[in-house]
Specification:
Helix content is 34%, strand content 22%. The N and C termini lie far apart (125 Å).
């Protein structure tokens, strides 16, 4: 019995042991099933990741061109420098020499060179050719090809540096577009990355070449834009001058667009920034943080704020009250809805009382315009007249047109971060809202939104979508996509638009508030505006900040170009758009209209102030020179008794005022041409006074600015070059700038 009991215990123990092994075996089987079947894909991927090394090969990012084929953004070859810590024998020597060659701190190189657990460590990712050649020479002379390596790469490059910076945008360190057109069309420009796939052994060493494969990269497509480099340059120059001379505290911006199809020729904000070095602040921003400790948290915070502000495209992302430039819309709707005609009269006493508001709403001319007609109401920018028209149009009708003109939606421009304007909902749109909206106050819009609304009047009544994209092409020149900038729905009858344009054109030529936008020989329609920033207060609690603006288009019929410029918070001199901005719109139009192929047609006014370009008369006989000058109607003076013209004053290419201009022809070598005359001061004089003073002093005169001064009052000289007191030759040209400084709208 005792043996039987002992045997049963042995059997029991055996069963327990077998059971344990069965449980363990079952667990192993389940685990293997999970590993080899259920989690097969996961672990296979992990094994492959350990066995292979993938190296991305960046494709060439597509080129961005302007409308004439000039390169705005492209790529240039740079070299990536990296060390191979596992192979380095003498990290000290390598760090010391590379530091001297590439100008990187020795300790940072040494730290990377000593990372034995790493195969590669990047030291510099964008060496230029000259520096990379020096590194290569160091590698070759010291037999370091297994320890230091150079790899060619592509870096985004902008040939014009800051030209068009806010529209073009830029890429980040990984070559991804993060601003402007670079961001919007990133997927088109960046292409598809290629890959080197290389197997490695257990020691992380390279396997034989048969374990390598290469997936080709595909270069990005190229972007052809509507931007015109010449127009962009001129716009940026004008913005710079307007901003500096007015002391603008919150930047200036402008757009030049084809109102017929929405093609944008130029868009700029001043100050701009260097696309090749976008993280460096402009001078204005630098001055704002000069007093900060560069190591302080405050400095870093303010630096980032200024950086993002500098990158911000003011024309698209910031909103402002358009002021009187909106009056084109009010008057267009009034004629469209037949609540007024050209014969409609108004009486402006300087203000108008609106039901629901505790006081009368003022006109910019506090003494009033008196009795005026429809055209004068628009030309002289009369607020009570606009309010009267709005009341006749009615709240529902006015608000519907407000929407149709695009003020309640984005324009759809192909740039990132477009803002939508600020406006009242219809439920909150009161009689007071209706009154002040009529002259562009208490709602906000963007510059691009406002220019699109103005373009509707300029093109005969149609909505357009603003755009930079013209076409997308591959590297063989094949067109992948061609943008068709068609007009949208018609909002206003073409006849109405033509009437408004004619009124504005006559105002520029004569007694309108936009006289400073006059361009000799061209029919320019323009409207100025000045709006108060009611949501910003100075240290005394006053809303003293203003936005000065001007819109214009030409020719006034069948317009081919439309412009908007606004200067935010001018602090020097006048704050009115008619003085701060309109002269610069004139300067810009004077340059770009002939460039776009529009020929001037001189009117009687223009003939009286016509200027002419002086030809080269040297080497001609005196008789030949006299004949040529007489043919052009230019007065002349012969100095000397020779028979051949040896030199002249002014020189070839100078512009002179034909009515009181003259060319001095020197015919004797012994005549002292270096006799100089001091330039008199004509600042503050009327154009007639300045011209007479300069002519009597022996100078020729070039007049810039408002050339229509003979038909209107208040024009004065605000600028002259050379400055008074300068000593220049008799017969040389003195340039004067004419501005209507008495305008207050």
């Amino acid at each position: 019995m005792e043996n039987l009991g002992r045997s049963s215990k042995i059997v029991m123990r055996g069963l327990i042991v077998i059971s344990i092994f069965l449980v363990i075996g079952l667990f192993v089987v389940i685990k293997l099933f999970k590993l080899q079947v259920l989690d097969y894909d996961f672990y296979q991927e992990n094994v492959i990741e350990q066995l292979i090394v993938e190296t991305n090969v960046n494709p060439m990012r597509g080129t961005i061109y302007d409308a004439n084929g000039k390169i705005l953004a492209t790529n240039k070859t740079v070299w990536i420098l990296y060390v191979c810590p596992k192979s380095i024998d003498n990290p000290e020597m390598i760090a010391e020499n590379l530091s001297k060659i590439i100008g990187v701190d020795k300790e940072s190189i040494l730290k990377k060179a000593k990372k034995r657990g790493y195969k590669y460590q990047i030291i510099h990712n964008s060496l230029d050719k000259e520096t990379s050649d020096k590194v290569r020479e160091f590698i070759d002379s010291n037999n370091l090809s297994e320890q230091i390596k150079l790899s060619a790469s592509a870096k985004r490059y902008y040939p014009y540096n800051d030209l068009g910076s806010h529209a073009l945008g830029f890429v980040n360190a990984d070559g991804v577009g993060i601003y402007g057109l670079e961001k919007v069309y990133n997927n088109i420009l960046e292409g598809t990355k290629g890959k080197y796939i290389t197997a490695q052994n257990a020691q992380s060493g390279d396997m034989p070449f048969q374990y390598e494969t290469y997936i080709e990269d595909e270069n990005g497509y190229n972007l052809v834009t509507t931007m015109d480099t010449y127009i962009q340059y001129q716009l940026e120059l004008v913005l710079r001058n307007a901003s500096i001379e007015s002391g603008a505290q919150n930047r200036a911006t402008g757009i030049v667009m084809n109102p017929q199809n929405g093609e944008i020729y130029a868009m700029a904000t001043y100050p701009s920034f260097d696309l090749n070095n976008p993280y460096e602040l402009d001078e204005l921003s630098k001055n704002k943080i000069d007093s900060y400790d560069k190591e302080s948290t405050e400095y870093k915070k303010e630096y980032l704020n200024l950086l993002f502000s500098m990158w911000n495209n003011k024309a698209v992302t910031e909103i402002y009250e358009p002021g009187s430039t909106f009056k084109l819309v009010t008057t267009s709707v009034a004629l469209q809805e037949k609540v007024a005609t050209l014969d409609t009269g108004f009486h402006c006493s300087g203000s108008l009382k609106i039901d629901g508001y505790y006081r009368a709403i003022s006109c910019h001319k506090r003494t009033g315009h008196g009795s005026i007609n429809f055209a004068q109401a628009l030309q002289q920018s009369c607020n009570p007249s606009m309010m009267t028209l709005a009341m006749r149009i009615g709240k529902a009708n006015f608000y519907e047109y407000f929407k149709r003109f695009g003020y309640t939606s984005k324009t759809g421009i192909d740039l990132p971060s477009e803002s939508i304007g600020y406006y009242h909902s219809y439920d909150d749109f009161s009689n007071v809202s209706l009154a002040v909206y009529s002259f562009g106050q208490t709602f906000k819009t963007t510059a691009i939104q406002q220019l699109c609304a103005i373009s509707t009047v300029a093109n005969g009544g149609y909505r357009v979508t603003p755009h930079f994209l013209d076409k997308i092409v591959d590297n063989d020149g094949n067109v992948i996509f061609d943008y068709e900038g068609e007009k949208g729905s018609q909002i206003i009858d073409t006849e109405v638009c033509n009437t408004i344009s004619k009124i504005l054109k006559e105002g520029v030529d004569g007694a309108g508030g936009a006289k400073n936008a006059y361009v000799a020989g061209y029919s320019v329609a323009a409207k100025t505006g000045t709006s108060e920033k009611k949501d910003k207060y100075d240290e005394n609690g006053n809303t003293s900040y203003r936005v000065s603006s001007c819109v214009a288009y030409a020719p006034s019929e069948n317009s081919q170009v439309a412009v908007i410029i606004l200067v935010d918070e001018p602090t020097i001199g006048s704050k009115y758009g008619s003085v701060v901005v309109a002269p610069y719109v004139s300067n810009l139009m004077e340059l770009i209209l002939p460039y776009l192929g529009m020929k001037p047609e001189y009117s009687a006014i223009d003939n009286e102030h016509k200027q002419i370009t002086v030809e080269d008369y040297t080497s001609k006989s005196v008789d030949e020179a006299i004949e040529a000058l007489s043919k052009d109607g230019i007065k002349y003076e012969i100095i000397g008794d020779g028979e051949t013209v040896l030199s002249q004053m002014p020189s070839k290419g100078s512009h002179i005022y034909i009515k009181k201009g003259r060319v001095l022809l020197y015919t004797s070598k012994d005549y002292n041409e270096e006799i100089t005359v001091k330039v008199p001061n004509v600042i503050g004089k009327t154009p007639e006074e300045a011209n007479l003073i300069l002519y009597n002093a022996g100078f020729n005169v070039k007049i810039e600015g408002a050339m229509n001064f003979s038909v209107s009052q208040g024009a004065t000289i605000t600028y002259q070059y050379p400055a008074s007191g300068s000593a220049i030759q008799r017969g040389d040209v003195v340039t004067i700038k004419v501005v209507y400084t008495n305008e207050k709208e």
